[in-house]
Amino acid sequence: MNQQPHVHGPDCNHDHDHHHDHGHVHGPHCNHGPAEPTRNPLKDVGRNDPCPCGSGKKFKKCHAA
């Protein structure tokens, strides 16, 4: 079954997060702002810091391997 993409018009006010996985296209009058970039929580962890997963191990011995 091939569905047409959903196009947001001037009355764009429905739950966008619910529809993002359905391949819709934002129209020129859509008030939906750009999504905030996702932050990688492992980027700022030092090798000798505790692993953010909560294992109690050092990062280099846990998720950095």
UniProtKB/TrEMBL annotation:
Residues 1-65 are annotated as: Disordered. Residues 8-20 have a biased composition (Basic and acidic residues). Pfam families: SEC-C (PF02810). Gene3D superfamilies: 3.10.450.50. It comes from the Bacteria. InterPro entries: SEC_C_motif. This is Uncharacterized protein YecA (UPF0149 family).
